[in-house]
Amino acid sequence: MAKSANAVNWFEIPVNDLDKAKSFYEAILGIELQPSEMGPMKMAWFPMTPEGTGATGTLVKSAGYTPSHSGSLVYLSVDDLEATLGKIDANGGKTLMPKQSIGEFGWIAHFEDCEGNRVALHQEA
Hints:
alpha/beta; 2,3-Dihydroxybiphenyl 1,2-Dioxygenase, domain 1; 8 strands
């Protein structure tokens, strides 16, 4: 691993209904996900800026991918955490942990997406 690189460079969020999940994430984040297929895997890729910071990833519908509250927790960056939580609740998701301060690093919250995954949000201070 390069000294200046962050350890994480990719994430995958399991889904059962790719179209529903794609619409959910586009609505709550105000972005467009790009559909893709790799063999039997159906995906919807989050936007990526090659020279940007942080990781990007995809929604994945495939054998062996099961939505869940267990396992790794992905934090998505947002500019307005409260507004995003409102969109989550209005689009079939559910707030699990409301906005909480993490001091000088900003705020975080956890939610359940429309597929039953536990996912998190981060807003910089």
